[in-house]
Design a protein that fits this description.
alpha/beta; Rossmann fold; Dehydroquinate synthase-like, alpha domain; 2 domains; two-stranded antiparallel sheet; globular
Length: about 350
Amino acid sequence: MWAYSNPVRIEFGAGAVGKIGNLIGKRRWALVTYDMPAFHELAANIRAEAGPPAVTIANIVTNPDVKDLAQSCELFARAPAKPEVVVALGGGSIIDAAKVIAAAQGDFSRVMASLTGGGALDGSMFTPIVAVPSTAGTGSEVTSWATVWDQASGNKYSLAHRALYPEVAVVDPAITIGAPRGLTLATGLDALSHALESIWNISANPISANFAVTAAREIIEVLPRLVDDLANGELRERQARAALMAGLAFSNTKTALAHNISYDITLHAGTIHGIACSFSLPTVMRWSLGHSADCDANLRRILGDDLGAGVERLAAFLEGLGVSTNPASYGLSASDWRALVLKASQGERGRNFIGRHDLAA
């Protein structure tokens, strides 16, 4: 038996950002975005249709940290009138931050208490979210969780609640054209990881698998061309659509071992998330083989009938993009790698993996 569910309305296509004013309607709104010129211009266009936001929160940077999120929630609380909808305009970090703000209702300590075992949050109190991703990779616009980092303590948390699914995802490939090569590459590989990790997953189902296969095949074809042709609107659209499908896949399965491996590498080495969660994909794929006929069949749809050769093809794809698949490239000795894999396999996401790690492989 299996089930698939995703309640997010999706508005997709070049020019879709022009619908945000109508989606906000007459509601008071909060804007969560980056303090960067490109986002100032996009926000001005939204203001022209929806009126000024009740509050603008622009203190978030990559990998939202508890310190910054506490300040964000304070800013939300200071709005002259409580916002009725949050517009998240930016990458996955912005959308994750918006989810925290929507759940906290001005008091970050509520969220932090829940993350550290202090009880469940009341989803009926959450503020609705309109998510407008500016990158093609994280999938946060169609998931019900947010990543929260605590650099001071070296911890990574996942805030999860069904009420955190955005009300609407506005996916406009045109606004991703300004993303530089490094960001385009990292977010694209994050999406590939979402797709593959939802296949070798204990919660995989036929609908999530079809989204994942379509996404992975498209990313493998498109991403190498896109990183060398960043202004290509057609390639941007194809990558945005593939990333969205990967999001729809892992919105029901969550990720697995490769993501759990990535967390310490990002926390302690500062490796950007999309690289940290994708360099191990060939190794993890090898460990997945033979444990599920459905998983193997879906991987064949992506990488060919010979799955051993498929592992090598996946590794060559990453290496061709300049991403080393050798753990030593990320500062990990053989013993470090073994310890990290063993730790990750016991993590929340690691336990989703259907395979068995073979550290001699």
